[in-house]
Amino acid sequence: MRCPYCTSNNDRVIDSRTSGDAYVIRRRRECLECGKRFTTYEKVEEPTLHVIKKDGRRVPFDRAKIMTGLMKACQKRPVSLEVLEETVNRIESQLNETFDKEVSGKFIGQLVMNALRELDHVAYVRFASVYREFKDVEEFLEELKPLLEKRRD
User: What pLDDT digit, counting tens, does each position of 86-116 carry?
Assistant: First the structure.
């Protein structure tokens, strides 16, 4: 594994752990050249899943796009990067278990929204406002109503 600091490929594994769902192995490594530590993730390469976009295009599934969306929604929110990584792992696992070749982008968006609803309500509303393309404040308020009612209970 190439060190992200000095680009040497001389390292040793310090610690290995499986993720909660056991689909990913997290490895802590130490570069033997510069002494710095870094983390890598190892997972089984699954058959390529394709996403059917709104306009009908089919593109390869890219977990980084989900992570980017989650990070933007959770910006300046008390949600750790580790929790976001676990969320992406869970969503990707669910997609691979449910679909063989293709999945709609709408389905993925709904999974992300459901995950954010459980993680952080502000991040959920941020994501929903972009994903659902709210046109006015009324649509925004409609999305907030269930959250406010749940909070009162």
Answer: 999 999 999 988 998 999 999 999 999 999 9
User: pTM to 2 decimals?
Assistant: 0.62
Q: Which residues contact 93 (CB under 8 A, 6 or more apart)?
A: 21, 23
In the structure encoding, which two tokens stand for residue 39, read together?
């983390």
The candidate with the shortest Cα–Cα distance to 54, out of 93, 2, 108, is 108
Q: Domain segments of the chain: what residues?
A: 1-44, 46-152
Collapsing DSSP states into helix, strand and coil, what is residue 139?
helix
pLDDT tens digit sequence for 17-35: 987 667 789 999 999 999 9
Query: What is the rounded CA–CA span in Å between residue 23 and residue 85?
Result: 13
